[in-house]
Design goal:
Blueprint: H1 8-18, E1 36-43, H2 49-71, E2 75-82, E3 86-90, H3 98-107, H4 117-128, E4 142-149, H5 158-166, E5 170-176, H6 181-187, H7 192-195, E6 196-199, H8 209-222, E7 242-249, H9 259-271, E8 280-287, E9 291-295, H10 303-311, H11 323-334, E10 349-355, H12 364-372, E11 376-382, H13 387-393, E12 400-403, H14 413-426, E13 443-450, H15 455-471, E14 479-487, E15 490-495, H16 503-511, E16 513-515, E17 521-523
Parallel strand pairs: 1-2, 1-4, 4-5, 5-6, 7-8, 7-10, 10-11, 11-12, 13-14
Antiparallel strand pairs: 2-3, 8-9, 14-15, 16-17
Length: 526
Amino acid sequence: MGRHRLLPLCALLGVLFAGLLPNLDAQEDCTQGLAADIYFLVDSSWSMGEENFEHVRQFLYSLTHALHQVGGDRFKFALVQYNNRPETEFQLNSYPTTQEVLAHIKAMSYRGGGTRTGLGLDFLIHAHMTTASGSRAVEGVAQVVVVLTDGRSQDDVAKPAQVLRLAGVEVFAVGVQDAVDSELREMASQPHDTHVFNVDSFLILRDIIQDLVVGLCGAVAQSGSAPNEAPVAGGGTAQDSADLVFLIDGSQNVGAANFPLVRDLVLRIVENLDVGRDTVQVALALYGANPEIKFYLNSYDSKASILEAVKGLTYSGGDKSNLGAALEEVAENLLSQRAGGRADDGVPQMLVVFSAAPSTDDTSAGDRALKRAGVITFGVTIADTATADLEAVATDRSFVLSAPDFRAVANMGDQLLQFINGEVESTNINQNEFTEVIAVGKRDIIFLVDSTMGSQAVNSAREFVRMFVKTMPIGPDEVQVGMAIFRESVLQPMVDLNSHGSRDELEASVDVIKPNQDRKLTLEQP
């Protein structure tokens, strides 16, 4: 994000804002020396208006200044405005000093639009709460989100709020005027009396700053443990591993002159990945009338080999752009275990589609196959030439990027990397660990698993059961665990309650439950 040049008007606004700062002078360090990554998600919809947005700017300026007073340089800040679409104002690592952050806030412009708070939260998770964007979560630094909105969201906030909650992120919800209290509580962390603020007027925002700072300080002080990373096969972790496929329009819609620009985008992304058998694997295919696989996930072991293969790509041409057939090819052949796919090991699988025109065939079958398999799909298009197709197949509409022209495509690598890295780090964000064995007495517990879920979801369910078993006193006179799967009206027992007399035996049976190619579960006998 480019830094804003200060105008004389900003100096005047600085004087005005300074008079609104809460009296926090000489306040003791309420965070006990701990650091925090603080993300502001700010509604800038039409219902707010320019005049009220000025009060929001003042609120953000004063709040940031007050937080800097108590947290110093240990506190880092990021800000996203949202309406119909979220837009990054700055990331945690955009500015080295809080003074530069404050200068940006003063110069921030009002955008206008709808109110898609759920999309804003999702964008924050995927594009900002990543190591590449400056997050220090893997170092154990507290993650704090402050949401400000003035009305009911036009989309669902429950799912992204649940992701944040399970990841241990502290969420503070600030509502103004027509904000819905139940929705604020849906987003906010517990206890609500310190995490939810709902005021009748934008003028009153300044009156809640001190209470908000105190609440945030308390949340940071209570958060001191580093997050756990889920181990995967090969010695890496699920947070630094991925299967990544590039699917590129090779038809005349791109053209021979523009194809090298698209190729440069792929090169820029690969150059910044940690490529290897136990980290990120890369595959690539072109599509026109028919898909053409250039290399598989297991074709190359090194980054240098992949870069050479990408540099050797040549334009194929043709007047057809059958994206649907290409998506089916990816689902069937590029992400499978025989092609190097590691979905069964819990590794996230991702697809980046570059399209320069609407598809000339139906994309629905391929789209369904990828979504069933839990593949995370991103899209890149020129202007709005293929936006509708890509938004339909993408995991989320915010995962579709639009370049104004082909020359701008190569410069989109950094933004795509933020998405990719964010998904690698957040795929297992909802895997919690049980940390102590609880005396529960005799119990018969049965887990029922939907076998039509994608590989990643099934593996997450299996991992949940395995961790649960690890902490229970397993035995005929203590806790017995059973497991069954279902598909439509068919129920299939996998682990009987009385079939395993010890924890080790039970764990071994749970570990071998895996999704197979047609997404049913199978049990391999140990």
